[in-house]
Automatic annotation (TrEMBL):
Catalytic activity field: 2 D-alanine + ATP = D-alanyl-D-alanine + ADP + phosphate + H(+)
Cell location: Cytoplasm
The UniProt record lists the keyword rRNA processing: no
Protein name as catalogued: D-alanine--D-alanine ligase
Gene from which this protein is expressed: ddl
Domain ATP-grasp: 110-311
InterPro entries noted in UniProt: ATP-grasp, ATP_grasp_subdomain_1, D-Ala_lig_Van_CS, D_ala_D_ala, Dala_Dala_lig_C, Dala_Dala_lig_N, PreATP-grasp_dom_sf
GO cellular component: cytosol
Length: 314
């Protein structure tokens, strides 16, 4: 059940925090610009702040009452800025320190999910040394399957990810992933459709299905390709849609998330089982991003969506 929105004057002076120094800076700048313009159209006293340099001093000295955090990736999505703002006493949209850090860390979030019985693809933490020998690389394929996904544990937007099916490909992908993070995971590849589920407050939005002619739904497919297809509603029948929404909410709640998030899920084409990949606590927020697409189907305008997320910082 949606609660009514307060008078926008009660939000006070709002900083829309975007940019930063992460590998997702470009996307964050676009998200922040869209959110800032939507809040200003709604009458909010909103101002853009780039998360570089002495931005914390800016937030404190210029009297901002709360922060709409659109800073993706490291620094903005992993608990760092959440902790700093908590110390400064400035409310911030989205999840807190612990939930943000857990969600950003694929290894630890998956360990938690396996511990509570939530379905997520099997995985292994690896290093470049482990895959250097043929025996070590073969052992990984023997455990996880003939096709695997290599992922930096603490990156978003599919940065540093690769789908591989050969020893040489595995070595190259692990080496490339270590350029982004010291912790690299190799995950069983789930063959089947990919879904994403947005959550705003306690409302689980309609699921979206994605398809791309590329190897997988990578950075190019997400942000630059004109051939990626999105369906919302996703085409699932009512029972499967309900199962997917419940699974997404379980993943969200298990990490302690609040405010809003987007949960990415794969469905095995053979078993029809859903597997949670990750939870994004600061997902993309351009007007063509996935959470706004689902919100629109649920009857929520982009401006209302931005205001409801801002409300979580109260």
């Amino acid at each position: 059940m949606r609660s009514s929105l307060p008078d926008v004057r009660t939000f006070g002076k709002v900083a829309v925090l975007f940019g930063g120094r992460s590998s997702e800076r470009e996307v964050s700048l676009r998200s922040g610009k869209a959110v800032l313009e939507a809040l200003q159209r709604s009458g909010v006293d909103a101002h853009g702040v780039d998360g570089i340099g002495d931005f914390l001093l800016t937030l404190k000295s210029q009297g901002f009452a709360r922060v709409w955090n659109a800073m993706h990736g490291r620094g903005g999505e992993d608990g760092q800025v959440q902790g700093a703002l908590q110390l400064l006493g400035i409310p911030c949209t989205g999840s807190g320190v612990a939930a943000s850090a857990l969600a950003m860390d694929k290894m630890r979030s998956k360990q938690l999910w396996m511990g509570i019985g939530l379905p997520t693809p099997n995985f292994q933490v690896v290093s470049a040394d482990m895959v250097e020998s043929e025996q070590g690389a073969r052992a990984i394929f023997a455990r996880l399957g003939p096709i695997v996904m290599v992922k930096p544990s603490n990156e978003g937007s599919s940065v540093g990810m690769a789908k591989v099916d050969s020893i040489e490909g595995l070595r190259n992908a692990v080496t490339a992933a270590t350029e982004f993070d010291r912790t690299v995971i190799v995950e069983r590849f789930i063959r089947g459709p990919e879904f994403t589920v947005g959550i705003v407050g306690d409302e689980v939005l309609p699921s979206i299905s994605m398809s791309t002619p590329r190897d997988f739904y990578d950075y190019q497919a997400k942000y630059h390709s004109t051939t990626t297809i999105y369906n919302c509603p996703s085409g699932l029948d009512e029972r499967d849609e309900q199962q997917l929404r419940e699974l997404a909410k379980w993943a969200y709640d298990s990490l302690g998330c609040k405010g809003w998030s987007r949960v990415d899920v794969m469905r095995d084409e053979a078993s029809k089982e859903f597997f949670v990949l990750e939870v994004n606590t600061v997902p993309g927020m351009t007007e063509t991003s996935l959470v706004p697409k689902a919100a629109k189907v649920a009857g929520m305008s982009f401006e209302e969506l931005c205001l409801r997320i801002l409300q979580s910082a109260m």
